[in-house]
Amino acid sequence: MKKMKFFLLSGLVVLIAFSFAQAQIPKEGASSYIIGYSGTYKTVAMGQERIQMTYEILGVIVSDTSDCILQNASLRCVGSFHAIKGAYEDDSGFCVCTRPDGDQLFTSYKASGRLGAVGKGTVTYVGGTGKFTGLQGNGEFTRINVRPAAEGTLQGYNRVKDHYKLP
Fold first, then answer.
1. Cα-trace Rg, the chain
2. SS (H, E, C) the chain
3. In order of start, what are the domains of the chain with their CATH numbers?
4. What is the pLDDT along the chain (167 residues), one digit of tens a residue?
5. 138-144 long-range contacts, Cβ below 8 Å, gap at least 24?
6. Within 10 Å of residue 158's Cβ, how many Cβ atoms?
7. From CA 41, how far away is CA 54, in angstroms rounded?
8. Alpha-carbon distance 153 to 41, whole Å?
């Protein structure tokens, strides 16, 4: 009898834990979060006033709120821009955000600013996998560059505010 009670109690605990782990994502929401990143880049100089840069970054996403759909997600982005006299208007790229549960969210972004200074941009959700299939939304971000830890790398963080909608 004791074994049966233990088995039933254990099964109940597993079911409760599973139901919390599978909590429903709201169909619509807004959040704010920070993306910390590091990456590498390649540049092509075009005289003394122009450069073309391509880059790849890897990072993590953290939020002060537990309802952020990207809390503790990893991030991989590739992008490029053309700078003239240190200013760029066409920074753009794509990112894959991978949540702790394995579901992914896909974004595109556009930004402008000056090399080594704060940049501003927009982000657009363009889809996802699992619970995020059909995801749509957008937001704004501020990019803050920090002094690189090693030559040939870049580091920084983005402050993001967004809104999303699921089908």
1. 20
2. CHHHHHHHHHHHHHHHHHHHHCCCCCCEEEEEEEEEEEEEEEEEEECCCEEEEEEEEEEEEECCCCCCCCCCCEEEEEEEEEEECCEEEEEEEEEEEECCCCCEEEEEEEEEEECCCCEEEEEEEEEECHHHCCCEEEEEEEEEEECCCCCCEEEEEEEEEEEEECC
3. 28-165 (2.40.350.10)
4. 555 454 444 544 443 444 344 468 899 999 999 999 999 999 999 999 999 999 999 999 999 988 899 999 999 999 999 999 999 999 999 999 999 999 999 999 999 999 989 999 999 999 999 999 999 999 999 999 999 999 999 999 999 999 999 99
5. 138/162, 138/163, 139/163, 141/35, 141/109, 141/111, 142/118, 143/111, 143/113, 143/118, 143/119, 144/118
6. 22
7. 6
8. 7
Residue type, 32: S
